[in-house]
Amino acid sequence: MAPLQTFTLFSLYLSLVSAIVITANGSFSHHFATTKLTPNAQKMTRLHFYFHDIVSGKHPTAIAIIRPKSAFGMTAIVDDPLTLDTKPRSKVVGRAQGLYALASKHNKALLMAMNFAFTYGKYNGSTLSVLGRNPVLDAVREMPVIGGSGVFRFARGYALANTVRFNLRNGDAVIRYNVTIMHG
Ligand SMILES: *[C@@H]1O[C@H](CO)[C@@H](O)[C@H](O)[C@H]1NC(C)=O
Ligand SMILES: *[C@@H]1O[C@H](CO)[C@@H](O)[C@H](O)[C@H]1NC(C)=O
Ligand SMILES: *[C@@H]1O[C@H](CO)[C@@H](O)[C@H](O)[C@H]1NC(C)=O
């Protein structure tokens, strides 16, 4: 190795070591709270609710924003109510806000990217973020829950979705979601 390179590596090493020492003992890190997360601080929560995807009528909660000639690429923005029961007029516990897109050329698999924004009881104001693949014709679809806010900070888990009702005539759907998450 050429001396210059050796020297450069050595000074890089020195600056890394001093950076670590400064971070460990410097005032910088002391400005932050030092609450430690332990495995015991994790809670597990299971939620069950119904997702109403209303594409028909005067007040749709899902609208196509991209409508290619083929179905592939269709993209919809949703603000779908989440309720305690299958009936659309049952108690609303939150909304699913985000989008879904037909991201498969060969079957009906959607990309789901949405936040569940809860408005119910102690979950009011808290959210869960779901990002996953949803092959809508499968009986049960599993999607990852990749994060959360409020009482669901640090959330990770999964959602199981199954279609309860699908109206072939107008495309409206009611989907049951069972969500299991670990969180702080
Ligand atoms: C870092 O701080 C601790 C306690 O405040 C001290 O005992 C230790 O010697 C310090 N280390 C360095 C490398 O300055
Ligand atoms: C949820 O929180 C919002 C804002 O804090 C408040 O206006 C609303 O009344 C709360 N709803 C419920 C059902 O607690
Ligand atoms: C969702 O939870 C309910 C109640 O525990 C259960 O009956 C149902 O089978 C679950 N659905 C799925 C897809 O696991």
From TrEMBL:
Keywords: Apoplast, Secreted, Signal. Belongs to the plant dirigent protein family. This is Dirigent protein. It is found in: Secreted, Extracellular space, Apoplast. Dirigent proteins impart stereoselectivity on the phenoxy radical-coupling reaction, yielding optically active lignans from two molecules of coniferyl alcohol in the biosynthesis of lignans, flavonolignans, and alkaloids and thus plays a central role in plant secondary metabolism. InterPro entries: Allene_oxi_cyc_Dirigent, Dirigent. One of its GO terms (cellular component) is apoplast. Residues 1-19 form the signal peptide. Its main location: secreted. Pfam families: Dirigent.
